[in-house]
Design a protein that fits this description.
- By secondary structure, this protein is an alpha/beta fold.
- It contains 7 helices and 7 strands; from the N terminus they run H-E-H-E-E-H-E-H-E-E-E-H-H-H.
- Helix 2 packs across helix 7.
């Protein structure tokens, strides 16, 4: 408990002075670097449209580093295996329990590995589907049906799953959606403007939720 209090004080002091987000560089063989322009575009969109003041270039952080506590939002994506060491599991758990927020976005092929690792981080909690009524889908942009569909994978509906601790959403897992692809430069996937707009607006909602809750 004492460690958690110290971490919470550290985290709170850090986010009070700056807004900066990071990309998670994980081990296991998966391509953590899969969407190189996505966070850059999300930051630009959010700063222009919802009045965030996020540092333009996102950081890259490793799961076992104490630097994770410098970022209120850490994003991870990829197509393949993701594997955390025991010390990384503990570090990520402490990060989220002390105020941090993690977003995992399945870029297709990450699901089975990620679910295994999430269970290691929170062995006593289960991923639950987040209903469309949750605030993360309400503002500043309305998504009355919940998570939007950006790219097709297996023809399944898009789902947002979460881990809640003390009624606080600490981990968001977006599945069968591929938000990160929608955040990429337009020429990467040649998505229609309305599709990219949906992705960026949903991303802005996530950031708004983190910085205002």
């Amino acid at each position: 408990m004492k460690i958690k209090i110290i971490l919470l004080i550290l985290f709170t002091s850090l986010i009070g002075y700056s807004q900066e987000i990071a990309l998670l560089k994980y081990n296991g063989g998966g391509d953590w670097y899969a969407n190189p322009t996505s966070l850059l575009n999300l930051i630009k969109f959010s700063n222009q449209n919802i009045n965030t003041t996020i540092k333009v270039k996102p950081a890259t952080v490793e799961p076992g580093s104490p630097d994770v506590f410098s970022y209120p939002f850490i994003h991870a994506t990829g197509h393949g295996n993701i594997l955390f060491s025991d010390s990384e599991i503990l570090n990520l758990r402490n990060y989220m329990l002390s105020g941090g927020f993690m977003h995992f976005d399945d870029n297709f092929g990450l699901d089975e590995y990620l679910r295994r690792e999430i269970k290691r981080i929170f062995p006593n909690s289960n991923l639950v589907e987040i209903p469309a009524s949750h605030p993360i889908f309400q503002k500043p942009f309305a998504f009355p049906a919940g998570l939007p569909k950006i790219h097709e994978h297996d023809g399944k509906r898009p789902q947002a799953f979460g881990i809640f601790q003390d009624n606080r959403l600490v981990l968001l897992y977006t599945f069968e959606c591929d938000l990160g692809d929608g955040w990429e430069d337009a020429e990467v996937h040649n998505d229609p403007k309305e599709v990219r707009d949906k992705a960026l607006k949903m991303g802005a909602n996530i950031l708004n939720y983190i910085f205002n809750n």
